[in-house]
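Sample pair:
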Amino acid sequence: MRRRHANISQDHRGGSRRRVGRRRAAGGAAPAVRAGRAVGHASAGPARAHLRRRRRPPPPFASVVAALRASLAETLARFPPLAGRIVHLPSTGDAAIDCTERGVAGGVRFLVAESDADGADAARLARDPDHDVEAFRLLAPTLDAGELPAETMAAQVTRLPGGGVALGVAMHHAAVDGRSVWRFLQAWAAACRGEGEADAAAAPPTFDRAAVRLPGGEELARSVLRKYAPDLPKAIGK
């Protein structure tokens, strides 16, 4: 498979391309979407690859990519934590999501790829009762989360053999849970269809932590952080 690490900000810039194939051996401010490098860490959050096969001739791949880039930038404006960075606060030892202008300046990594793997067409991947884990893994990016500051989201669009397209995302569990992953994807899909304003009006996201009250919650969060990430700012998510 070949991937292109594209830059997408409010002005929707482009970038380079990479090919990815099956491996033979083991190996707030306005948000932006940015280029990134491929990394070797395990993903630090939920990763999803969504396949769609159309009976009618699909639009040109370049048009699909452009629409996804533009709608992602639009959607991130409503979900600023996914455009920010997880940062270390030395004064308290805490980790926090920086959604300030500085935090979102790097943008969200957006990769464009072409798959040349045998059997990686959308119909087979969607139909097979036993999922091809390796094939699906190559359709989603890997978060660069080994050290703070760390990204909270990355996205990858892959052209599949036969004309199908896969959209893969990886999100850090510090920023989202399962329900919020799907809510973000619904909002992104609506924006890509040109229905972003209606979706935003119908179900705006809320980031009010006071909505969930847990006595002693702050200290509990710190104790969990110290237990699973004792060497901050290094080795978060491992």
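The beta strands are 2-6, 18-20, 33-34, 47-52, 85-89, 94-98, 108-115, 150-151, 153-159, 165-171.
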